[in-house]
Write a structure and sequence with these properties.
Strand content: 15-25%
Shape: elongated
Distance between the termini: 41 Å
Number of helices: 12
Bound molecules: protoporphyrin IX containing FE
Length: 551
């Protein structure tokens, strides 16, 4: 890894901080937080089941199928019955990007789901590629016999012993619902029956099975033909179940096997290395134009894994253009700036809690002389520790095309079809003038189109109403794009060269959403005020959501 890597940077943040940079989108790790439930079962259970059902069509013989989000096209099959699957897909699609697939998010959902129910930390790799159509059927069903289950798991790449363990690991949270499986749990009997008596990720499903107190409807259900867990768990005389009865053995087995499950991918897919929390994480660097139009402004964050109230941290940068016009280039030691707060913000998330980490994030917002601009930056901690991207510094690749979220606007409407964003790009004056200013947009699709992302391209025109800012050094270009667009790459073609600003978020467009987190951030008391894009939050019953007028 070397900064910047959009894919790894994004996945690391989503995994460990539990959120994206888009202020409209609920943190991913809030979804199943504290093993919270949705309808009948823990949300975590719904996320894990979705990942298994997506993976279960893998064929180890020819290396096809696996965790590839083909479930997007298979969701209406009988073998995928259950609202949890559809809800989970809908949860996940908000987190895809042009460089992170739905399959990667489905896999990440299992890791976060298990941790949110106090289960083990499963090592996570990225790089999955989404299928573009349905795969063959093949999710095991409870009425099938042991031979067909054994063969089904063999095809998925698991031995008999691994099958027993994987089913126990899956069936430690959640249960069977009568509305989905009325022959297993009668509708008049109950809404559903949980697999074990604890609502956490633990070995109770194993111990209750071994000591005969289990109520799991797939073990002691009223219909013996659908007691698939009983057949599987007992298939080797309980040898395997006994081997994972102790909690450490259960945790270890589940971390390994659920890890194998999410890493079961088509043979053409190359996964990344395991993504561990970065000891030092530099966020995305954004160069924009200050509110009063007089300066360039660099916004960037640095996250350190350990809290230290006595730490001092400074950002240094070098000029892009030296001796140009009236500007004052930085000296050879660089210009310097302090963070907005010297104490930083302590982060909390499901993963950081599971790993006993309390990282601190420092935010820098640095005004920069537009004449000399900026080419690279680095940090110095406590006056001596230099953090400089292995010697090269953190590069600002270009200052020709800058997304100006503050001067872009977004229409408000309760009707999604009437919402749009007017995107403004500040383009640095050049000779010759740019031949083309355009954006490549990305939207995450929706349930109607099986969450297939939408890609489009829009040309911008000079914005005559808003021109010549930053001492006449930048000109604005504008285009209005439809609402589903969540991100775009902005390009400026000048004299045979293309300058690009990547992964700009329409969610950054003013008026801003402020997410105020009450209490310690680990509870559900989140108040979202001054919200744009309220539709993003409509499903979240645990939050108070309201919309205020534009500032
Ligand atoms: C022979 C293999 C399997 C069979 C026959 C089977 C069957 C079932 C059935 C009938 C349900 C109830 C679903 C509902 O009521 O909507 C269920 C739930 C569940 N299964 Fe499996 N399953 C198998 C293997 C697995 C595996 C390997 C995993 C994951 C590692 C898994 C994870 C889950 C989870 C987490 C739930 C609970 C979902 C919830 O409560 O919302 N299952 N399974």
């Amino acid at each position: 890894y070397r900064w910047p890597s959009p894919q790894i940077d994004y996945l690391e943040k989503l995994l460990y901080e539990g959120r994206t940079e888009d202020p409209r989108i609920e943190p991913l790790d809030f979804i199943g937080h504290n093993c919270g439930t949705r309808l009948f079962s823990p949300i975590a259970a719904q996320l894990i089941r979705l990942a298994y059902h997506d993976m279960a069509t893998h064929n180890v013989d020819d290396g096809t199928g696996g965790l590839d989000a083909s479930i997007r096209f298979e969701i209406r099959r009988d073998e995928n019955i259950g609202d949890g699957n559809a809800f989970s897909l809908d949860d996940f699609h908000f987190y895809t990007t042009p460089f992170v697939s739905m399959a990667d998010i489905i896999a990440l959902g299992t890791v976060l789901g298990v941790v949110s129910c106090d289960g083990p930390v499963i090592p996570y790799r990225g790089g999955r590629i989404d299928a573009i159509s349905a795969g063959p059927p093949g999710v095991p069903q409870p009425h099938e016999d042991l031979a067909s289950h054994t063969e089904s798991f063999r095809r998925q790449g698991f031995t008999n012993e691994e099958m027993i363990k994987l089913v126990a690991c899956g069936h430690t949270v959640g249960g069977v619902q009568s509305k989905d499986f009325p022959t297993v749990v009668s509708r008049t009997e109950a809404v559903g029956v949980f697999f074990d008596k604890t609502n956490v990720f633990d070995s109770a499903v194993v111990t209750e099975y071994l000591n005969g107190t289990i109520e799991n409807a797939l073990v002691v259900g009223r219909n013996s033909s659908t007691n698939s867990d009983a057949r599987i768990f007992g298939s080797d005389g309980n040898v395997t179940m006994n081997s994972i009865a102790a909690s450490e053995a259960f945790s270890k087995a589940c971390s390994d096997l659920l890890g194998r499950m999410i890493n079961t991918v088509p043979k053409t897919v190359q996964l990344t290395e395991v993504i561990n929390p970065f000891p030092i994480k530099v966020g995305k660097a954004r160069l924009s134009i200050s509110g009063d139009g007089s300066l360039l402004q660099l916004n960037v964050t640095i996250r350190l894994l350990e809290a230290n109230p006595n730490r001092s941290i400074k950002l240094f940068y070098t000029s892009r253009y030296t001796g140009a016009g009236s500007g004052n280039p930085c000296s050879s030691t660089g210009c310097s700036a302090d963070p907005i707060s010297s104490t930083g913000i302590t982060l909390s998330s499901s993963m950081f809690t599971a790993l006993s980490l309390s990282p601190v994030k420092y935010t820098f917002s640095v005004g920069i002389d537009p004449v000399t601009s900026i080419s690279r930056f680095w940090f110095v901690i406590d006056g001596h520790d230099v953090v400089d991207n292995e010697g090269t510094g953190y590069e600002i690749p270009q200052d020709m095309a800058l997304f100006d979220a503050g001067r872009s606007t977004r229409t408000r409407s309760t009707d999604p079809a009437n919402r749009s964003t007017s995107v403004r790009i500040a383009v640095r004056n050049s000779s010759p003038l740019p031949s083309r200013v355009y954006i490549d947009t990305y939207d995450q699709g929706d349930a109607q189109n099986s969450y297939v992302p939408g890609l489009a391209s829009f040309d911008l025109r000079p914005d005559v109403g808003l021109n010549d800012t930053v001492a006449g050094m930048y000109r604005y270009y504008v285009v209005t794009i439809p609402d589903p667009v969540v991100s775009f790459d902005a390009h400026v073609d000048v004299d045979g060269q293309t300058f690009t600003e990547e992964h700009c978020l329409t969610g950054d467009v003013a008026p801003k959403i402020n997410v105020y987190t009450c209490c310690d951030g680990s509870s559900y008391h989140n108040f979202i005020v001054d919200i744009r894009g309220a539709e993003r939050f409509a499903r979240q019953k645990t939050m108070i959501v309201y919309e205020t007028k534009a500032e």
